[in-house]
Amino acid sequence: MGERPVRQPTSRGGADDRATTVGVVASLLGVTVRTLHHWDEIGLARPSERSAAGYRIYTAEDVARIHRVRVYRDLGVSLEEIARLLDADAEEAARSLLHQRDRLRGRVRELERMAEALERLARARQEGVLLSAREQIDVFGAHWQPSWAARARERWGATRQWAQFAERAANRTAEDWRLVAQRVRALDADLAEAVRTGVAPASTEANALAERHRESMGAYFDCTHSMQVILAQTNVDDPGFRAHYDGIASGLAVWLRDAVNANARAHGVDPENALWE
User: Fold this and answer.
1) Out of 176, 202, 231, 232, which could bridge 260 as a Cys pair, Cβ 3.0 to 4.6 Å?
2) What Å distances lie between residue 271 and 15, 156, 205, 259, 264, CA to CA?
3) What is the pLDDT of residues 183-198, one digit of tens each?
4) What does the pLDDT look like over 145-163, one tens digit per residue?
5) Could you give the CA distance from residue 255 to residue 192 in angstroms, rounded to a whole number?
């Protein structure tokens, strides 16, 4: 390319034929000196001249090119693509710009989807189940009380398990919840049958039912055997929970607690020392 001309720089920039220092250009166009150095190094916007001391000197034409780079950069165009655009003919430039437009529109749609997902997650952290009261009763049954989610948040809202519950609930539709409810009802029916037929809490059949109960909690949060022990005891101690289980089958709350404890022991957990992990 040959040696660049040496010229004394001026202290002000502008669209004239004066030579301009890198600092003045950076200030004039709202970019950093480091950015201009980088654009020079990759050949995107190189100064035409150098001072006697070797400093970069930009002509009015150089400044105009940098301004074009800045325009495209502000639109999100990559430096590689900008290099092609600066020297492209009108037809090629139009195709490239339309491609960039389509790419940005796709990005906008993706950002909107992400924003909606964040909004749903925030609501789920606050509300638990993102269904109307009527939808909740329709999905979970007439016994369901929509206020239960608010009570659960008041009690466990600061826990990791509530966060997991919200993360899983955020993307669930009414149909998703309906499937969850169907699995719970099937489990309740099998638990009731076990109580009515006198299945022993420490039996193989009871252990299998206790495991199904623990796994069913996975629809809400990760539940260890130790945590399940605490939940099963809560079902006995809390009048509302006990009434729910005993309404399915008389004595079910205590039977399930005993079955969960026996199954926990089989998995190396002492129910007397169970922890909420």
Assistant:
1) 232
2) 82, 21, 19, 11, 7
3) 999 999 999 999 999 9
4) 888 888 888 888 888 999 9
5) 10
